[in-house]
Fold this sequence. Notes:
The protein has one helix at 88-98; strands spanning 12-15, 24-31, 36-39, 44-49, 63-68, 71-72, 76-78. The chain is mainly beta. The protein has a 5-stranded antiparallel β-sheet, with no helix packed on it. It has a two-stranded antiparallel sheet with strand order 4-5. A hairpin with a 4-residue loop joins strand 2 and strand 3 (36-39). The chain starts with 11 loop residues before the first strand and ends with a helix.
Amino acid sequence: xxxxxxxxxxxxxxxxxxxxxxxxxxxxxxxxxxxxxxxxxxxxxxxxxxxxxxxxxxxxxxxxxxxxxxxxxxxxxxxxxxxxxxxxxxxxxxxxxxxxxx
Length: 102
């Protein structure tokens, strides 16, 4: 049975510990088995890649790429989004209240 995390992909979170403490961002990916999440713009690392000539489309360019690394889920806290998601029940009530004038 997979573990349950308190955040999901797309949630707005704030980092509460570590070098990026106080920063906010959206969750890009979750790794429940490792208890880790990837947050956009947080824990940026530089990854060196070698130029390769393998693959279906030929050469892959090499160089230094900047990308996000996973951080532990205990170092983030979920924040409320700026605009709450519309619920289907609210939409149905709005449609019913408009109705037709007969």
